[in-house]
Amino acid sequence: MKYFSYLNTAAEITGLYKGQQPFHLFIKDFFRQYKKYGSSDRKQITHLCYCYFRLGASFKNITVPEKILTALFLCSEQDNEMLARLKPGWNEKISLSVEEKCAFLDIPFETLHVFPCTDELSGDISKNDFILSHFTQPDVFLRIRPGYRQSVLHKLEQEHINFSLPAENCVALPSTTKIDSIIDINKEAVVQDYSSQLTGALLQLAKPMDLPVTIWDCCAASGGKSIMAKDILGNIDLTVSDVRESVLVNLKKRFAEAGIQHFTTLVTDLAAPPVNLVPGTFRLIIADVPCTGSGTWGRTPERLSFFDKKEINRYTHLQQKIVSSVMPYLETNGFFLYITCSVFKKENEDMAGFIRENFAAELVKMESIKGYTVKADTMFAAIFRKNM
């Protein structure tokens, strides 16, 4: 029966995967080597693998195929053909909540080991709600750019795309939605997680009367925060930097699509002070720093099984170096926006304390952005004003 074949293949793949690369790349390589699987087979097997990873270190006392079936049950919200064939009694309970499903299986939910290092979570994160969010694939979000709301919504409606509006210019879409051929990406709308969009409220706090605003997006990556700063603050004098030159090449392409023409790029490793910059230059520094990414593991659930707790301290030390390198380039009364997509206290509240204590920086606002309530990433953001 094909379902047993799917289970065994998914068990084989998860056994081969050792976490050295993102799983989506690993499984593409697997299917490239074994071309006997059709598109429907690949889709089914991939889904089973991701369900398996969503259980993290739970259910170590059962076989891998049994764990995959259990994961499929816990992660499904609608009737599932495989469960209907192999576990019809389970499929009848498919609409229950995860906690109710655990009770049905006689497994106390609190004994599951889904998320690692829960003792390290930021204080205002709801442990149970956050863990539960990992059983569901997060949505994809668009941020509609100024002037394009009507056209974007019209295009989505014309194509009968299922979407919701969690905020006026934010569109939530199912994770499988293909939008590149519908929306002019980067010009009309930017693919940007809802929680990431909410950091824009802190950018508003830095809006001055004098223009243009000098901004340094010091860990720019794909440039999403820079585009949002342009949309919110308007006339800006923008500098972007990253340690990877290839990333800045892609960023330039994205800026061209977004209509951002005037900016300065800098390839620099912020573990040491940058060169070719004048201290006190910038009104606003955005530091969306490298981190564990623990608030995004709903999208990459393999990380639940392969995370090493030592990474928390490694990233914290890197974050301290980056902040120490860039703060001298902030002007007096300028704003420093610190962002992570982590849920760990050491990367979040503790780093906010480090910034206040070491750089004469007044904390204006700090918050955990709880995306786990809306099928989005969970992030942390804090904005400071430099006093001297």
Written description of the protein model:
The chain is α/β, with parallel strands linked by helices. It folds into 3 domains: 2-112; 140-191, Alpha-Beta Plaits; 194-386, Vaccinia Virus protein VP39 (Rossmann fold, 3-Layer(aba) Sandwich), CATH 3.40.50.150. Helix content is 40%, strand content 18%. It is built from 16 helices and 11 strands. The strands form 2 sheets. It has a 7-stranded mixed beta sheet with strand order 7-6-5-8-9-11-10, with helices on both faces. The protein has a 4-stranded antiparallel beta sheet with strand order 2-3-1-4, with no helix packed on it. Helix 1 (2-16) packs across helix 3 (39-54) and helix 3 crosses helix 4. The longest helix is centred in the C-terminal third of the chain and has 17 residues, at 310-326. It starts with a helix and ends with a strand.
Summarize the structure.
This protein is α/β, with parallel strands linked by helices and 388 residues long. The protein is 40% helix and 18% strand.
Number of E-type strands: 11
- Order the strands across the largest sheet as they lie in space: 7-6-5-8-9-11-10
Rg calc: 23 Å
How much of the polypeptide forms β-strand, as a percent range?
A: 15-25%
Helical proportion, percent range: 25-40%
Number of domains: 3
Low-confidence stretches: none
Q: Which assembly state applies to the chains in this document?
A: single chain
Name the shape in a single word.
Answer: globular
Order of helices and strands: HHHHHHHHEHEEEHHEHEHEEHHEHEE
CATH hierarchy class name of the largest domain: Alpha Beta
The CATH superfamily of the largest domain appears as Vaccinia Virus protein VP39
CATH architecture of the largest domain: 3-Layer(aba) Sandwich
**How is the CATH topology of the largest domain named?**
Rossmann fold
The helix-and-strand class reads alpha/beta
